[in-house]
Amino acid sequence: MRESIRRTGRRAAVTAGLTALVVPLTVALGTGTAEAASCNVTTGPYQKQVEKFLARPVDGRQSSADCKAIQAFQKKHGITPTAGYAGEITWRTMNTMLQQKAAGKNPNKDRKCPTNKGRIACVDLTRQLSWIQDGATLKYGPVPVRTGKDGTETRTGLKKIYWRNINHWSTLYNVAMPYSQFFDGGQAFHSTTKSMWNPPGSGGCVNMTSADAKAYWNLLRNGDDVYVYGRKPGT
């Protein structure tokens, strides 16, 4: 009877020892699998365009390296899900960047922003660009901006700056809005810490980097014209 108990005890100890070895291995493998799964290895509908933008080999097939490069871009600009998939929002963001780059130092080449108003701040929703001009002379910019998302679009048309508050606090969104210059019913130029390419967009204001918002503050005054035109991609 005692011998039987001893044999049972030895078997239990061996089993426990094996379990102790297997469980950490299983957990480790499980963790690795989860990490791998977080990177989407599926080829996206905009694979070639995204590969070209990121200076990756353009073969139209998703690779692990492609996925990591796409993920890095998505993380930088707050694009979710951050899965490394070459989808519509990722490509739309990249395409907007390309259009902004193409604008160079002649953003009003097509003369869509009035040149007969003197000093005016122009906002092109299509390219997500803004600049200040005096007549046809460029005074500042163009700079990337982040305008209203679908449902809270930045309203188009000719407006005027009617109120400025350098340290404005939004009671609506409970956030700071430094260098606020209001031009249309609560919509304003102001700085933000978000990426200018962070989707889906603002609550209607024209977000800018702190440096650009400060420059606009120094260049514009109450009564200055603001012209908003175009249509933001995705709205």
UniProtKB/TrEMBL annotation:
Asked if the record carries the keyword Acetylation, the reply is: no
Signal peptide span: 1-36
Instruction: Name the chain's protein.
Output: Murein L,D-transpeptidase
Q: Which GO terms describe its molecular function?
A: peptidoglycan L,D-transpeptidase activity; transferase activity
**Which CDD domains would you find in this protein's record?**
YkuD_like
Q: Where does the L,D-TPase catalytic domain lie?
A: 118-229
Cytoplasm listed as a keyword: no
Q: Which organism does this sequence originate in?
A: Streptomyces cinereoruber
InterPro entries, alphabetized: LD-transpeptidase, LD_TPept_cat_dom, PGBD-like_sf, PGBDSf, Transpep_catalytic_dom
Protein keywords: Cell shape, Cell wall biogenesis/degradation, Peptidoglycan synthesis, Signal, Transferase
What does the entry list under GO cellular component? Answer: extracellular region
**Which pathway is this protein assigned to?**
Cell wall biogenesis; peptidoglycan biosynthesis
Concerning SUPFAM superfamilies, the annotation shows: L,D-transpeptidase catalytic domain-like, PGBD-like
Biological-process GO terms, alphabetical = cell wall organization; peptidoglycan-protein cross-linking; regulation of cell shape
Location of the active site: 190, 205
